[in-house]
Structure formats: C-alpha cells, structure tokens
Amino acid sequence: PLPLITRIINEIDRFFIRHQRKLERLTAIAITLPGILDARQGIVHRMPFYPVRDMPLGSELEKHIGVPVYIQHDICAWTMAEALYGASREVSNVIQVVIDHNVGAGVIADGRLLHSGSSTLVEIGHTQVEPWGKQCYCGNHGCLETVASIESVLELTAQRMQSSPECTLHQQPL
Fold first, then answer.
1. d(Cα 71, Cα 34) in Å, to the nearest integer?
2. Are 97 and 124 in contact (CB under 8 A)?
C-alpha cells in the first residue's frame, strides 16, 4: 500500500479536481486528526490505526498545494468548536473528555486552548494505568486508551464472554 502521506495528497488532488471552481479563493487548509502531533510544526508523530512516525504532514501538503496548512488534534479542534459555536460558547473554562475510538481531552482555560509548547497539554489517553498492559500506538504499555477506548472495552467484553456462557450479551451484537 502507498504511504499515508501519498494517499492524503492523492485524495486532496482528487478533491481539487472535482471542486476546482469553488476553490479559486482557497487561502489555507486545516486538518484535524487523532494521534500525537506537533501542531505548530505540522508534524504527526504517531497515529492510531496507521504506522506513522514523525510524518511532516503540514510542510509536505504546503509544498504540494501552495497554501498554508494547519493541523490540530481532533479533540482540541472539537473543544474549540464547542467553545466558539456550541454548548460551551458562554463559558471561558471548559474540559471536554472524549471516549470513543480514542481517549482524550481538550481544555480551555480563560478562553484559550491549553497547549504545552507545540503539543496538546492534556494527553489523558496516554496516561499509563496498567504498566504491564497492552501496547499502545504511542509505544507505551497500558495507556488509558488501551483500556477505556470503545475497541478495548469491546475486546475485553468478548474475552470475558468466552468464559461466561450464561452471559445475556451472547444474544446481542457487540
């Protein structure tokens, strides 16, 4: 298979071809994605579901497309959107915890997204909770994400159901 950066560039090229007339005034591109990234430098260090290591997504896309490219962690972007347009728009301090395919949090304090240098400050999904647990895509073992994400919970449920034939979940799809 093609490297992820090549696949992303190919998809963007196809999108530009399909929507060329509407994109005449394009001034920048913003991309949100899960993983461990450096938003300021546009580098994706690690991602779930893809074997990514220090992918220079921002600079490669900017070179290819010719407009500035901004990347942001998906949960931080979601938290900012909620603060600007959603349920938390009237408050200046927000904590949004997300548990789905990943586990993470976005925090806004005094109206500003918390960052530590160039990465998100609140990487709760990569807090180690089981030192001898399953390996996470970040490289560590037993991260909260390996225990509490939807996939992890479903995997553990399936394992426990094997030893419990009387479990009522056997009649339900997981």
1. 10
2. yes
